[in-house]
């Protein structure tokens, strides 16, 4: 438990959040290096009997300092753009331990990734397969490939973060997968390395993973009968965290059940965790600008908005919100809303809180898909990010200035 009260003051890891908020501009993100390390090592320790590689999903939180920490722990990386690959390299990550996912890889991105000798391209369509082969031959390279299966599994998560159902844009239908592997086997610019799937995000039970893996194992057996040998199986990511204290599958149970099915295959296991590494390792600290009462609602208007954390309006996502300083004052049912000019600009609705103008609130479990989804909407600066290790706190991203936001437009002003 990284968030706790000591003498009615909120602490995150070992940081006194009230003292830190008083001396630093809000809103800001604060991450725990200890918890990121713990979450990563929990996977590693539970998979230690298997030949495996954890490829951290960069899209979950792409801050260079966080990527550097994970690289030092031995992590590989899962990327979905050339920009993310450049981040991995800038952070000291190894391209040879990096897989490139995503349905829309451009020719420029493919060339760049080939030049950096990445571990594998996860192929999402026949046209992508043909394009990659053409580029590899032109560049006098051999591209390592894995074909992404769409196993048509309903993971019972938010529809925007399902990726393994038939009407999703991701992966290749099971009925077409064998033909695509046979075609890949004939391409001179390609080297078949593996098979992969990714069925969604924020999955809190084992069943969808087991169902998808069972389908993919059947495909592997059929490929083997056709003399198409694989080196690895990539089961993607998607393991969730508990935003609302409800029980979820543990990394230990997840690893144990996955290994039961994968170890007999004698293939290297790749996993692409993101949220389960960084999700619970971050908080957003915000200050109450004003309180407001309407005939039907109480509002706490804070300085963080949907431009800083879009998950609540985008996914109807729940994040616990706590007072940074507890009092004995009566708690009032309130909506926590931001300064952005949108009705959808809220961090939480119907929360029992006791705060006044100038007090601070903490939004929990924002380490994944928090800052990375932020924007400059309403010409608001992207905010500071900090990293704590015990009581030592370092700034790992500097807040935008308005001048920086305007700079590229000023250069083109007509």
Rg from Cα: 23 Å
Number of strands: 21
The number of distinct helices, counting runs of at least 4 residues, comes to: 12
Number of domains: 2
Mean pLDDT: 94
Helix content: 25-40%
> Span from first to last CA?
54 Å
Which fold does the CATH topology of the largest domain refer to?
A: TIM Barrel
Strand content: 25-35%
CATH homology-level superfamily of the largest domain: Alanine racemase
Shape: globular
Supply the helix-strand structural class: alpha/beta
Give the low-pLDDT segments. Answer: 160-165
CATH hierarchy class name of the largest domain: Alpha Beta
Architecture of the largest domain in CATH? Answer: Alpha-Beta Barrel
Largest sheet: 9 strands, mixed
SSE topology sketch:
Layout: E1 3-6, E2 9-12, E3 15-16, H1 17-22, E4 28-32, H2 33-46, E5 52-57, H3 64-72, E6 76-79, H4 82-90, E7 98-100, H5 107-115, E8 120-123, H6 126-138, E9 143-150, E10 172-173, H7 174-186, E11 190-196, H8 207-225, E12 232-234, H9 251-262, E13 268-271, H10 275-278, E14 282-293, E15 298-302, H11 311-315, E16 321-323, E17 332-337, E18 346-353, E19 360-363, E20 384-389, E21 392-397, H12 402-410
Parallel strand pairs: 4-20, 5-6, 5-13, 6-7, 7-8, 8-9, 9-10, 9-11, 11-12, 12-13, 15-17
Antiparallel strand pairs: 1-2, 2-3, 4-14, 14-15, 14-19, 16-19, 17-18, 20-21
Task: Describe what this molecule looks like in 3D.
- This protein is α/β, with parallel strands linked by helices.
- The protein has two domains: 3-31 and 279-410, Lyase, Ornithine Decarboxylase, Chain A, domain 1; 33-277, Alanine racemase (TIM Barrel, Alpha-Beta Barrel), CATH 3.20.20.10.
- Helices cover 29% and strands 26% of the residues.
- It contains twelve helices and 21 strands.
- The chain has helices at residues 17-22, 33-46, 64-72, 82-90, 107-115, 126-138, 174-186, 207-225, 251-262, 275-278, 311-315, 402-410, and strands at 3-6, 9-12, 15-16, 28-32, 52-57, 76-79, 98-100, 120-123, 143-150, 172-173, 190-196, 232-234, 268-271, 282-293, 298-302, 321-323, 332-337, 346-353, 360-363, 384-389, 392-397.
- The strands form three sheets. Strands 4, 14, 15, 16, 17, 18, 19, 20 and 21 form a nine-stranded mixed sheet that branches. Strands 5-6-7-8-9-11-12-13 form an eight-stranded parallel barrel. A three-stranded antiparallel sheet has the order 1-2-3.
- The longest helix is centred in the middle third of the chain and has 19 residues, at 207-225.
- It is globular.
